[in-house]
Design brief:
Layout: H1 2-26, E1 29-35, H2 41-54, E2 58-64, H3 67-79, E3 86-89, H4 91-99, H5 107-111, H6 123-128, E4 130-131, E5 134-135, E6 138-143, E7 145-150, H7 151-157, H8 168-178, H9 195-205, H10 223-237, H11 244-249, H12 252-257, E8 263-267, H13 271-278, E9 282-285, E10 295-304, H14 311-321, H15 324-333, E11 337-338, H16 344-348, H17 357-361, E12 368-370, H18 377-394, H19 398-418
Parallel strand pairs: 1-2, 1-3, 10-12
Antiparallel strand pairs: 3-10, 4-5, 6-10, 6-11, 7-8, 7-9
InterPro entries: SBP
Protein name: ABC transporter substrate-binding protein
Signal peptide: 1-26
Length: 419
């Protein structure tokens, strides 16, 4: 009987230990990740899998929030002392998040880590996410702007494909030939509702700028900026481009993927979805030149919540997400140009039928122009959007609207520099 009782006791202890083991497994440490583009899911999942080989006790939960709601949700959660541990950061919002103490300075981690080298990444993106040479968001991928076109629409109209010789004049003359009102087809998207893909490039191609180098002056009221917008207005007035109202109602990229738009300036990130929609009918060329060539360059970085509970684990995750293998995964997926310079060539083969070198060339010195930012970018961009779209929607003076943009922007820049 004693042996039976002892055996029962041993079984009960074993069951108890098993239960405890299951309980601790259920209480895994959780790290929250937030971003907005599910097209990068495969690469992100691969990086998380690599991270879990080092941290099998950590569960990584990823939330994809549409861009339209991403920043409101993020700012509210971080401001409330919670929010994701690791998340995407972009240029327009970076200074606000870094100066408001919402994201961690990554430099202390980098200083103690022999595996992370800032020099391995595209310098423009490192600079974008640095404050006084200290990095606050680890570079993930970059994007530049090229001219995507629909070969089928060109062939049907008997128009030669665009190439590196094209200028603004070609957009107008050849774009007019591609218009087919009966089929609802436009020749070119003269963007007024998006900036990086549209008028930012044209302003620089005209010889102007949005913000000067020392971030003290707006360039929106310059003759060059007004020349760029006069070109946009001409394309819209002639019916070569969808109107601003059309662009608000239906995104130009949706028209392009529906065979209703022959040419669209767009960022490299659009490559996979454009290719999925158009297949071998998709082509890409450099942006047509104005007085000079120019393409706006931007990139995304991974930031860390200032109030993260386990910063060492969060740093290990950021390292995994920005590692050489992670950059290779980004490159092979075709999603966009990886931020690690040594892996850019891999991306070129992601869609063999496309000359993706166009986008790497667009980042080169003399062509690539860093996306314009300052401490309060989003505030002056709100003015920019309101005034520019308002002028096109109401058919009022775009020159006067640009003067108001510059006036409001200069006031904000003055306040920034006095803070």
């Amino acid at each position: 009987m004693k042996k039976i009782v002892f055996s029962i006791f041993i079984l009960m202890v074993a069951a108890f230990l098993t239960a405890c083991s299951s309980g601790s497994s259920a209480e895994k440490k959780v790290i929250e990740v937030a971003l907005w583009d599910e097209n990068v899911k495969g690469a992100v999942d691969a990086s998380i899998e690599a991270f879990n080989e080092i941290h099998p006790d950590v569960e990584v939960k990823v939330t994809y929030t549409p861009y339209a709601n991403y920043w409101t949700k993020l700012k509210t959660s971080l401001g409330g002392g919670s929010g994701p541990d690791v998340f995407w950061m972009n240029g327009p919002n970076f200074y606000r998040y870094s100066t408001d103490g919402l994201i961690k300075n990554l430099e202390p981690f980098i200083g103690e880590d022999d595996e992370f080298n800032k020099d391995a990444y595209v310098p423009a993106v490192v600079d974008m996410y640095s404050v006084e040479d200290e990095l606050y968001a680890a570079p993930y991928f970059t994007d530049s702007v090229g001219l995507y076109y629909n070969k089928q629409l060109f062939d049907e109209a008997g128009v030669d494909y665009p190439d590196e010789t094209w200028t603004w004049e070609d957009i107008e003359t050849e774009g007019a030939k591609l218009v087919n009102p009966d089929e609802g087809v436009f020749g070119y998207a003269a963007h007024t509702t998006v900036n990086q893909q549209g008028y930012y490039n044209l302003i620089h191609q005209a010889g102007g700028f949005m913000i000067n180098e020392d971030k003290t002056e707006s360039g929106f009221d310059s003759p060059e900026a007004k020349e760029a917008f006069a070109f946009i207005k001409d394309l819209i007035d002639k019916g070569i481009s969808p109107s601003t109202q059309n662009q608000i109602e239906t995104e130009s990229k949706q028209l392009f993927m529906s065979n209703k738009l022959a040419m669209i300036p767009a960022i490299s990130v659009n490559t996979p979805e454009f290719y999925e929609a158009l297949g071998e009918n998709l082509g890409v060329a450099p942006l047509p030149k104005g007085k000079q060539a120019a393409s706006i360059v931007h990139g995304i970085g991974w930031a860390m919540n200032e109030k993260v509970e386990d910063e060492e684990v969060a740093w290990d995750l950021i390292k995994s997400l920005t590692s050489e293998q992670a950059n290779k995964d980004i490159a092979e997926s075709g999603f966009s140009i990886p931020a690690m310079q040594s892996t850019g060539e891999i991306w070129l083969g992601s869609v063999p039928s496309l000359d993706l070198q166009v986008f790497l060339d667009a980042q080169e010195e003399g062509v690539g122009v860093a996306y314009p930012i300052s401490k309060r970018t989003t505030e002056w961009q709100d003015i920019e959007t309101k005034e520019i779209q308002g002028a096109f929607l109401e058919d009022t003076s775009i020159d006067e609207a640009l003067d108001r943009v510059a006036e409001g922007m200069n006031k904000i820049l003055e306040e920034e520099n006095n803070e």
